Amino acid sequence: MTENNVLHCANHPGVETSLRCNRCDKPICPKCAVKAPVGYRCRECVKSQQKIFDTAVWYDYLLGFFVAGFLSLIASFLISLIGGIGFIGWFLIIIAAPTAGVAIAEGARLVIRRRRSRSLFITIAVAVALGALPVALTNLLTFNLFGLLFQGIYLAMVVPAVYTRLSGIQLFK
């Protein structure tokens, strides 16, 4: 390039670059470039594209929170009953916790009408954890260590199951 055609990054004026955003054609340096499936884009274009996929409205947060919390309270209570079974309870919790996660996620998805937002999914995951809190506190106050252990296993398995089910994360393609 000749001296007259030298481009400088729009965010870092002292940095020379030959990259441009393939959407808005703004000059960007490698620090500002975000690799997208279609090429390099600036952070502003990537952020504006991601906002298109957030479709949640304000009441989805309330509905999702209360439904997920209530369903988690019920599932947490049922998990505490499994703890009293004995040795077979360990196998049952490994099966029951992810199944409860799927049921909670589908119940929440039903009330939010399949609208999407990362913060909505996080809100629902927090509600699942808070929904199990009363049963966990009861186990703690009654010194039921196995019940408390089962609640910990339940939470460790159900919260990620709910989040991944709602957000659509695929581990295997």
Walk me through the structure.
This protein is mainly alpha-helical. The protein is built from six helices and six strands, in the order ββββββαααααα. The protein has helices at 43-51, 58-82, 87-111, 118-131, 133-141, 145-167, and strands at residues 7-8, 16-17, 19-20, 27-28, 34-36, 39-41. The longest helix is centred in the middle third of the chain and has 25 residues, at 58-82. The protein folds into two domains: 3-51, no CATH class; 58-167, no CATH class. The protein has a two-stranded antiparallel ribbon. The mean pLDDT is 88.
Write the layout of secondary structure elements.
Elements: E1 7-8, E2 16-17, E3 19-20, E4 27-28, E5 34-36, E6 39-41, H1 43-51, H2 58-82, H3 87-111, H4 118-131, H5 133-141, H6 145-167
Antiparallel strand pairs: 1-2, 3-4, 5-6
Helix pairs in contact: 2-3, 2-4, 2-5, 2-6, 3-6, 4-6, 5-6
Low-confidence stretches: none
Query: What is the structural class?
Result: mainly alpha
Shape: elongated
Mean pLDDT: 88
- Which series of helices and strands comes N to C? EEEEEEHHHHHH
How large, in whole angstroms, is the Cα Rg? 23 Å
- How many domains is the backbone divided into? 2
What percentage of residues falls in helices of 4 or more residues? 55-70%
Number of strands: 6
Distance between the termini: 43 Å
Biggest sheet strand order reads 1-2
